[in-house]
Design brief:
2 helices; five-stranded antiparallel beta sheet; 120 residues; 28% helix; Alpha-Beta Plaits; alpha+beta
């Protein structure tokens, strides 16, 4: 692993704890990404958080964190895995940040055109 990045896949939620389906989705996404990233030798899933957004306490999100090596390939793989597995691909945002630096996440993919903001 040469250069590493944090990558976060974010799903919007309707409540802080999420529904039973949101929890099922979290488990399935983490399981699928763990296998796919490992098989492609691109990284691993590092965990998740679920609840209020830091930037807007009235909004809720599920964030799944990964540590990856090749940014472009990893994003393409994650998008394909979520789409092929039918894991609410049409609701996600993907953002990355250099691994060793305390910076902000940069939005790399959003479920619809025109979305430019990203925050945890």
């Amino acid at each position: 692993m040469s250069e590493k990045f944090w990558l976060v896949v974010q799903y919007p939620l309707k409540s802080a704890k999420g529904s039973q389906r949101d929890q099922w989705l979290r488990d399935k996404v983490m399981e699928n990404l763990e296998i796919s990233l490992a098989d492609a030798n691109l990284g691993y899933v590092d965990g998740f958080d679920m609840g209020k957004c830091i930037s807007d306490p009235k909004k809720y999100a599920l964030n799944i964190f990964c540590v990856i090596t090749e940014e472009e390939r990893s994003i393409a793989l994650i998008k394909r895995v979520l789409r092929d597995s039918r894991l609410d691909y049409t609701r996600i945002k993907i953002a990355t940040m250099p691994y060793e630096k305390e910076e902000t996440y940069t939005l790399k993919y959003a479920y619809k055109k025109g979305v430019t903001d990203f925050s945890l």
